[in-house]
Structure formats: C-alpha cells, structure tokens
C-alpha cells in the first residue's frame, strides 16, 4: 500500500440522493475521512458508513483544504466534498492550490481525483425548462475573493455579448447591493422583459422555482441558496417554462399554421445566413452579382421602387462612391441580399417573444425565404405552427397599390392568411406557405417591395406630394436598396421628407432626413411613442445630395457595429455620445409641475 493516501474531491450535485453520480457514491464509500462544510455533510449523511467527519464552517475553506492534504499525506483516503461540481466555485481549485504551494508533483505526491457533479447551472436550468441552450456563462457575485470592478466588467461583457448568464452567490445577508447593481447593468443591455429564473435550493427540501423578468426579479426572494439565470435576447417563456432557442433564427410570435422546414432545406449554408460559411459565400458572390447588375435597365421612372428596378441605380451609386469601408460593406451586404437567386438572405433579427412561440420567416429573396423556413428551426417542440411573414409596399414614396397588386395579395392570403395594414404604408402578409421562394417571386413580379419584418432598418418616405416634389426620390430609393431590410440591433426607421413641411413626420423617427432648398437636413434619435417621446435632434443642415446617403450609411454601419442587441437607436446615440461625427445633446430636463388638484 502506498504510504500516501488519496484526495477525492467530490461534487455531490444539487443535494438529493437521485442526482449524485455513481462514482461520487463509490468515492464517498471508499473514503476514510470526510471533510466539508457543515450543511454539506448533513446533506450526504445518509450515504456515510462510519467515516471520520471533519466539519467546518462556511468561511474556513482554506483550512479545510489544508486539513485534507495533511490527512492524505498521512496515508488516509480523504473525501473533500462540494455541492454541485467541485470544480465550479468548489473545493477542487483550493485543494490544488494548497498542494502547489507545497511543491506537490503528480508522479510522487498524493493521488488526487476530482469527481464531477451536476453544477447549479445545470440543476437549476432543468427546473426552469431549458434556459441554457445557447452560449452561457456563470458569474459569481461574491466579491469576497474577487474585486467588485472585475465582476462588473464580466457582467458587462456577458451582457453585451448576449450570453445566457447564471449568477451564483447572488446575495447573502451582508452582500445585498451586488444583485441590485448587476440588474441595473443588465438593464442597460437587455430588454426589461428578458426572462429570468430564480431557483432556490434546487432538488432540496425547500426548493423554490420562480419565473420572472429582468425588470421584476428583485421583487422576489433571492438568497445564498439561489441561482439566478438570465435569458439572452431570444429566450422566451412558454407555459411557465423558460426556453432559449438553440440558434438565432428569425422567429416571430404568431399562432397559426407551421411552416415546417423541408428536410432538404436543413443544414444548407443558405439556411444559416449568420454562419461563417454563408459570409464567405457572400464575399465570393457579391462581386459577381454586382457585375451582373450593372447592365443599365433604365432607372425607375416612378417612385414605385421595385427591387429589380432600383438595383441598377443603387449599384451605380455604390460603385461611383469610393465609400469608406463601412459604407461599402453595407452596400455589398444589401446588394447580396437583394440579388435574385443570391445566396445571402436579408437578416431580419430573430425575436421569439412571449406566449406563442411559433416561427415565421421574414424574407427578401428566395434564399431568405428558404433561410427563414430553415430558421423556423422546427420550433415544433411546442407543437406551435409558424407562418411565413413579409412586409410588402408599392414603393418607398409611392403609397398607391394597384388593383392587380391588391388582387395578388388577396389571392396569396387566401382563406388562411391575413393582411395587416400598418401605419407606415406597408401591408404585412402572414400566410401559411410551403414555398416562400415562389411567393416572394410572385410578389416581386407584381412590383412590390418585399421586406423582412422584425429588427431591421426600414426606409420610409412621404409621397413627395404625389411625385410633384420628387427631387429626393433617388435618395429614398438608394437608401431603400442599400439599407432597407438589413438587420438592425432594434427595428429602426429611416424617414425622408421631400420638403420642409416635413408633414410625414421624419423628424420624429430614429433617423430623419428633410429635403429643403436643395440640401438635406439630418435629424437623429427621435422617439415617436411612449411617455418620453421626443423629436430627433437636428444635427446638420443643407447636406449636399451626393453626401447624404454616405453619411446615413456610415451612421447605420456604426450602429450595427456598436449597438447592443435590442438597443434602440436613440438610446445608442445617447450612450455613445458621437455617431459618425455627430454629437448627442441631452434634451432639456423635464420641469416638474406641482399638481393643482388631488392630494
Ligand atoms: N460548486 C457549486 C457552486 C458553489 S457556489 C456548484 O457547482 O453548483 C454556491 C452557489 O451555488 C449558491 O450561492 C447558489 O447560487 C448555487 N447553488 C448551489 N447549490 C444550489 C442549489 N441546490 N440550488 C440553487 N442554487 C445552488
């Protein structure tokens, strides 16, 4: 027998007898000494058979590890126990630290075995549904051994990168501010309605499971034995369960028929526009698409800017502009997106909200349609069907639907589809559909602009007084082709008014452009709705026609690059302070007026 003993560092899982591994049970049985925190020893007591027990208090971790090493060096088999996994904020690291300090070597020192266990992130997730399906991280809010600034940085990094986050050690009797501060950091990056799960004492006697939201989480009991799981921007709640979809697909909340992914559509690059492979394809394809489109087919004569008509114009404009890289790459992205039969789908940002998580694709091209369907990603787990959903309009400026267009919409909607007219002169078509590719083709043939729905850039324009004041039409069309339908951190309106009357309300939109006296005035960061609605900030006047689109493209490129998921443009502008050289100015503070009635 070796003169040296053995250290068994055992994670015993959440705390019940069912969720402990076989190896952990055997390791406990073969140990002569058990060393652990009082509560943990009590939890595994039914598994012991006469071993010597060394109990210690919560904060005596270092002395626990030292004692374990000492006893093992004396020749004993020593079990050091941790709840969950011993390598996740458990005893494993500390045991190795003590050994390292003593110059321990693997070949001739005491044998060490770390026995894995089910960590709280896993046990708690299982009780909540499936919140940790996508990239996730754990953060301990205990600033006992870690500086608070480091923890803050990690929370910010995880929040901005849209990780699902499991907060360990969220709160104790003395540490109460950490969770409050963490919530406020998270709220800067995530929707207040983001699903949050609070699990206390998972798989133990006083187990408590609460499904709440980021906004509301502090109104519930959170303590030492709670793990807090924060969803990402796609996480949803269904029937009291938190579910994070596996991928970032285009998902919309609808509750009718499903558009199932055909087997042959799965696992195709086109079905995953966000993948590296698709990006490479796009880079390869775009120049060809551009070349194919340079053949002059004549600029569109009216505002009825159908994609096929405006493309050559936009192409010319893009090629003529030795745009900065940002503008150029945006243009390439948009052109690829609009290319007939091109590989690049438009990238309507996926959102899968609330109650009825059926999935719908929003599409701009045939490829998108396939992608959307693929993105439909068989949400079938819920057995909820999905619809194909697109926005259609007769033009950027043109608001007039032809009778043929109306007849086509009626035809494609049929008995099962629906048509919703929205305030921005667009009809949203939702229809059960097995061949979105064909549908988009039919709509385009009838000269519709077909746009993804969701978190995309939307270009809106007035009708230029029925085209009498049509000087700014090419700018609107160019913006539509280059930016319309591109994925945005949050749905964003770019609105253009053709004269200084600005009757179409461009100055209230995220980005407003008003054509006046031969130049363009630019307004940034409007908020049209809500209690704190406000007009956009005027940032420049009289921008020449050959510069305005570049400027807007640069603004969009910056927002796309630096905006957080779900961050509205006005919030982004305020946060970063300067966008494309335009400085944000705070609106004058609201004046509190004493109420004259009531008490
Ligand atoms: N090694 C453990 C973590 C120890 S840190 C593991 O891998 O799970 C202690 C924190 O873990 C607690 O503050 C709590 O956030 C979490 N935790 C541990 N057991 C838990 C349980 N049964 N239910 C909920 N959270 C738990």
UniProtKB/TrEMBL annotation:
<dbReference type="InterPro" id="IPR006066">
    <property type="entry name" value="NO2/SO3_Rdtase_FeS/sirohaem_BS"/>
</dbReference>
<dbReference type="InterPro" id="IPR045854">
    <property type="entry name" value="NO2/SO3_Rdtase_4Fe4S_sf"/>
</dbReference>
<protein>
    <submittedName>
        <fullName>Precorrin-3B C(17)-methyltransferase</fullName>
        <ecNumber>2.1.1.131</ecNumber>
    </submittedName>
</protein>
<feature type="domain" description="Tetrapyrrole methylase">
    <location>
        <begin position="6"/>
        <end position="217"/>
    </location>
</feature>
<dbReference type="InterPro" id="IPR014777">
    <property type="entry name" value="4pyrrole_Mease_sub1"/>
</dbReference>
<dbReference type="GO" id="GO:0032259">
    <property type="term" value="P:methylation"/>
</dbReference>
<keyword id="KW-0411">Iron-sulfur</keyword>
<keyword id="KW-0169">Cobalamin biosynthesis</keyword>
<keyword id="KW-0808">Transferase</keyword>
<dbReference type="InterPro" id="IPR006067">
    <property type="entry name" value="NO2/SO3_Rdtase_4Fe4S_dom"/>
</dbReference>
<feature type="domain" description="Nitrite/sulphite reductase 4Fe-4S">
    <location>
        <begin position="464"/>
        <end position="578"/>
    </location>
</feature>
<dbReference type="InterPro" id="IPR051810">
    <property type="entry name" value="Precorrin_MeTrfase"/>
</dbReference>
<keyword id="KW-0479">Metal-binding</keyword>
<dbReference type="InterPro" id="IPR014776">
    <property type="entry name" value="4pyrrole_Mease_sub2"/>
</dbReference>
<dbReference type="InterPro" id="IPR035996">
    <property type="entry name" value="4pyrrol_Methylase_sf"/>
</dbReference>
<dbReference type="InterPro" id="IPR000878">
    <property type="entry name" value="4pyrrol_Mease"/>
</dbReference>
<dbReference type="InterPro" id="IPR006363">
    <property type="entry name" value="Cbl_synth_CobJ/CibH_dom"/>
</dbReference>
<comment type="pathway">
    <text>Cofactor biosynthesis; adenosylcobalamin biosynthesis.</text>
</comment>
<keyword id="KW-0489">Methyltransferase</keyword>
<dbReference type="Pfam" id="PF01077">
    <property type="entry name" value="NIR_SIR"/>
</dbReference>
<keyword id="KW-0408">Iron</keyword>
<keyword id="KW-0949">S-adenosyl-L-methionine</keyword>
<keyword id="KW-0004">4Fe-4S</keyword>
<dbReference type="GO" id="GO:0030789">
    <property type="term" value="F:precorrin-3B C17-methyltransferase activity"/>
</dbReference>
<dbReference type="Pfam" id="PF00590">
    <property type="entry name" value="TP_methylase"/>
</dbReference>
């Amino acid at each position: 027998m070796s003169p040296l003993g053995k250290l068994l560092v055992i994670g015993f899982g959440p705390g019940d007898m069912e969720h402990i591994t076989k190896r952990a049970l055997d390791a406990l049985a073969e140990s002569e000494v058990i060393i652990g925190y009082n509560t943990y020893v009590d939890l595994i007591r039914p598994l012991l058979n006469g071993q010597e027990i060394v109990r210690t208090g919560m904060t005596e971790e270092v002395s626990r590890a030292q004692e374990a090493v000492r006893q093992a060096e004396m020749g004993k088999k020593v079990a050091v126990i941790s709840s969950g996994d011993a390598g996740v904020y458990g005893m494993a690291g500390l045991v190795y630290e003590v050994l390292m300090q003593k110059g321990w070597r693997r070949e001739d020192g005491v044998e060490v075995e770390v026995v894995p266990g089910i960590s709280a992130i896993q046990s708690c997730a299982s009780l909540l549904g499936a919140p940790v399906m996508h990239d996730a991280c754990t953060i301990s809010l205990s600033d006992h051994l870690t500086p608070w600034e480091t923890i803050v940085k990690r929370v910010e990094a995880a929040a901005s990168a849209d990780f699902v986050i499991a907060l360990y050690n969220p709160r104790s009797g003395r540490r109460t501010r950490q969770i409050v501060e963490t919530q406020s950091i998270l709220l800067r990056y995530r929707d207040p309605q983001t699903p949050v799960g609070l699990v206390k004492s998972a798989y133990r006697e006083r187990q408590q499971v609460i499904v709440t939201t980021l906004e509301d989480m502090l109104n519930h009991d959170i303590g030492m034995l709670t793990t807090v799981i924060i969803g990402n921007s796609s996480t949803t709640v269904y029937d009291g369960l938190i579910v994070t979809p596996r991928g970032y697909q285009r998902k919309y909340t609808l509750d009718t028929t499903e558009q199932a992914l055909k087997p042959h559509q799965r696992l195709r690059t086109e079905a995953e526009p966000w993948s590296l492979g698709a990006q490479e394809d796009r880079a390869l394809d775009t120049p060809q698409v551009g070349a194919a489109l340079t053949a002059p087919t004549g600029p569109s004569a009216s505002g009825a800017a159908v994609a096929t008509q405006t493309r050559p114009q936009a192409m010319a404009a893009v090629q003529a502009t030795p745009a900065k890289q940002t503008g150029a790459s945006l243009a390439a992205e948009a052109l690829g997106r609009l290319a007939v039969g091109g590989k690049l789908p438009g990238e309507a940002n996926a959102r899968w909200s609330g109650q009825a998580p059926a999935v719908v694709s929003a599409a701009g091209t045939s490829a998108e349609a396939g992608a959307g369907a693929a993105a439909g990603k068989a949400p079938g787990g819920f057995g909820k069907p999905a619809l194909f959903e697109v926005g259609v309009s007769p033009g950027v400026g043109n608001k007039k639907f032809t009778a043929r267009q109306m007849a086509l919409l009626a035809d494609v909607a049929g008995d099962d589809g629906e048509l919703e007219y929205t305030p921005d002169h667009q009809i949203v078509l939702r229809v059960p559909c097995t061949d979105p590719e064909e549908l988009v083709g039919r709509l385009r043939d009838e000269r519709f602009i077909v746009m993804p729905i969701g978190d995309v850039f939307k270009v809106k324009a007035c009708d230029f007084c029925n085209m009498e004041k049509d000087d700014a039409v090419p700018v609107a069309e160019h913006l539509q082709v280059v930016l319309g339908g591109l994925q945005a951190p949050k749905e964003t309106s770019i609105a253009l008014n053709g004269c200084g009357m600005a009757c179409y309300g461009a100055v209230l939109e995220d980005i407003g452009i008003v054509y006046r006296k031969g130049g363009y005035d630019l307004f940034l960061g409007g908020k049209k709705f809500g209690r704190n609605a406000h007009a956009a900030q005027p940032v420049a006047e009289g921008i020449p026609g050959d510069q305005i689109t570049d400027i807007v493209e640069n603004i969009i490129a910056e927002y796309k690059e630096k905006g957080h998921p779900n961050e509205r443009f006005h919030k982004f502008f305020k946060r970063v302070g300067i966008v494309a050289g335009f400085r944000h100015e705070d609106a004058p503070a609201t004046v509190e007026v004493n109420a004259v009635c009531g008490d």
